[in-house]
Design goal:
Helix content is 59%, strand content 0%. By secondary structure, the protein is mainly alpha-helical. The mean pLDDT is 94.
């Protein structure tokens, strides 16, 4: 499955958003991940959240490559 980001044309009808095509379950799970990351950044009081997000992104992609 290919990820499609939000395009700010959200719909709540049916099982999938008509804007991005993702399921409402996937959207809700993604929101939880983002909220957890934001809460962690705030808890740590990082002055450079962009560096943290970049490092996490790199780490996630590296771990995914190892699994393939």
């Amino acid at each position: 499955m290919k990820f499609t980001p939000c395009i700010d044309q959200c719909t709540k009808e049916g099982t999938h958003c008509e804007g991005c095509g993702r399921s409402h379950e996937e959207i809700a799970a993604t929101k939880q991940i983002v909220q957890s990351a934001v809460a962690f950044i705030k808890q740590q009081d990082y002055e450079n959240p962009d560096a943290f997000v970049a490092a996490i992104s790199k780490s996630i992609l590296k771990k995914l490559q190892k699994d393939n």
